[in-house]
Design a protein that fits this description.
single chain; alpha/beta; four-stranded mixed beta sheet
């Protein structure tokens, strides 16, 4: 299998199937990719209902895994450990992608390169499609063929909306100790081996659903927010020193600054 799409899900809602529907309509040949759904936390009635629903997607390779331990990081790690494909994509269960998404990403894929997509944000309350910080970065750099790591840092803040070479991931995994910021930390763990960031065509779109109830938008208690943020900063420093001199100093500084800014905004 050339590409594995990993979807972590917890107590899945109907939007999971909007996500899978979008993957079933890809222009990329189904022989080249698989979908791995990792159900974390409660087993039933979710496992049986997902297993039954999967049967409707005839011809699409879908595997369902389960872990009793809740948490998106652990679920993603289980998905990674279950695959041996050349490339990996992560999609959150409440998001979806355009029809050319996988095909456009795989078209530009190469070793030691992160290929990032365009992003649009869907506000569930207003039902409006808007830009976010990643889409703003995409619009800024869409005319460039290859971005150095520091210039492409916005695209390294999330594991979604991109294709990642499996050999680039190696033994790196998501750190499940963190309540927030684990995405950016995971991408930073790969950064010393990343040659550049390449942008896919404009029609390659990751649609991010903005939900007030989502884990990523949940406001942490003040003490937990501060402790989590400072631990993240220490982890970034640890990554920088352990990968020195391959580490990009400005990139790591930007990660730490972004973590502190996000901490202040959530106080």
């Amino acid at each position: 299998m050339q590409l594995s799409v990993i979807i972590p899900t917890y107590c899945p809602q109907p939007y999971l199937w909007e996500c899978v529907d979008s993957l079933s309509k890809q222009t990329l040949s189904r022989d080249l990719y698989e979908v791995v759904i990792v159900l974390n936390g409660c087993f039933e009635p979710y496992y049986s209902s997902i297993q039954q629903k999967i049967k409707e997607y005839e011809g699409l390779s879908i595997r369902l895994l389960h872990t009793n331990e809740a948490g998106v990081s652990n679920a993603r790690n289980i998905g990674l450990d279950s695959t041996d494909s050349d490339y990996v994509c992560f999609i959150d269960d409440d998001d979806w992608v355009s029809e050319k998404y996988l095909g456009s990403l795989i078209e530009k894929a190469e070793d030691n390169v992160i290929v990032a997509s365009n992003v649009l944000a869907y506000n569930e309350q207003t039902r409006e499609m808007t830009l976010d910080y990643i889409s703003n970065a995409y619009n800024k750099y869409c005319g460039r063929k290859r971005l150095p790591l520091f210039e492409g840092r916005s695209f390294m803040s999330s594991s979604c909306a991109k294709i990642i070479p499996r050999q680039l991931i190696g033994k790196n995994r998501f750190n499940s100790r963190y309540a927030n910021g684990e995405d950016a930390l995971f991408m930073a763990s790969l950064s010393s081996a990343v040659d550049c960031v390449v942008l896919a065509e404009e029609q390659c779109i990751y649609y991010r659903r903005l939900r007030t109830a989502s884990v990523s938008r949940k406001r942490l208690p003040i003490t937990e927010n501060v402790v989590n943020s400072f631990r993240l900063c220490c982890s970034y420093i640890g990554l920088y020193t352990s990968n020195f001199p391959k580490s990009n100093f400005l990139f790591y500084v930007s990660r730490i600054v972004a973590t502190l800014i996000r901490m202040v905004k959530r106080l």
